[in-house]
């Protein structure tokens, strides 16, 4: 495209120059010869790209054409790969979201706890998930719990002196409770407890550490 633009520019400039010369020349026999010379030069300017083509090594021309084609082909491939990855990422996010919703529905009515209820479920994975078997093998499930009622909050938050011993006892109790939750949910969802991480509102998480 750049070569064609340069060629047309040269032709236009030469024609303008020829018009100026023709206007400056007096009406005489010399004007006739000048027009003939200008016409011949115009033909040379027009045919110059063809002469350049014959002077250029055909291998060089083919290499340039091939190189440009490869560059465009690589750009198209990179763009397609980028779009493909974006589509796969959005599909993966949708699948994980749907699996989390399904797990939460499966736990409704089957998960029993006097102190906690499921607030939300999140599923994450570095691999492509398509079936429930993939979920049990490659996914990590995060379960967020919240108190079952306002009364529960009051019951689990008594006023006491926060000594190291009481804090350690509270941690052990919470770890035991979350362990029981993990075991119960693992049985409901038929996945390994190691794949489940439990988060309690206002407490620490307990999972596959």
Automatic annotation (TrEMBL):
UniProtKB keywords: Membrane, Transmembrane, Transmembrane helix
Record-linked InterPro entries: Spore_III_AF
UniProt keyword Transmembrane helix, yes or no: yes
Listed Pfam families: Spore_III_AF
Domain of life of the source: Bacteria
Sequence intervals crossing the membrane: 6-25, 37-54
Protein name per the record: SpoIIIAF
Originating species: Bacillus licheniformis (strain ATCC 14580 / DSM 13 / JCM 2505 / CCUG 7422 / NBRC 12200 / NCIMB 9375 / NCTC 10341 / NRRL NRS-1264 / Gibson 46)
């Amino acid at each position: 495209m750049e070569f064609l633009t340069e060629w047309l520019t040269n032709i236009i400039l030469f024609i303008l120059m020829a018009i100026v010369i023709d206007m400056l020349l007096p009406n005489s026999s010399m004007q006739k010869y000048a027009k003939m010379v200008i016409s011949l030069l115009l033909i040379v300017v027009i045919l110059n790209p063809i002469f350049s083509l014959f002077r250029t090594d055909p291998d060089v021309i083919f290499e340039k054409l091939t190189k440009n084609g490869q560059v465009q082909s690589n750009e198209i491939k990179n763009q397609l790969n980028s779009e493909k990855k974006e589509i796969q990422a959005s599909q993966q996010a949708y699948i994980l979201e749907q699996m989390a919703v399904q797990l939460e529905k499966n736990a409704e009515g089957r998960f029993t706890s006097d102190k906690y209820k499921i607030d939300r479920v999140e599923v994450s994975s570095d691999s492509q998930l398509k079936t429930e078997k993939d979920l049990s093998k490659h996914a990590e499930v995060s379960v967020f719990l919240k108190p079952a009622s306002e009364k529960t909050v009051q019951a689990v938050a008594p006023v006491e002196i926060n000594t190291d011993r009481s804090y350690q006892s509270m941690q052990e109790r919470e770890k035991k409770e979350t362990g029981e939750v993990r075991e119960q949910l693992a049985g409901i969802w038929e996945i390994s407890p190691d794949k489940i991480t439990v988060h309690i509102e206002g407490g620490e998480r307990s999972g596959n550490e």
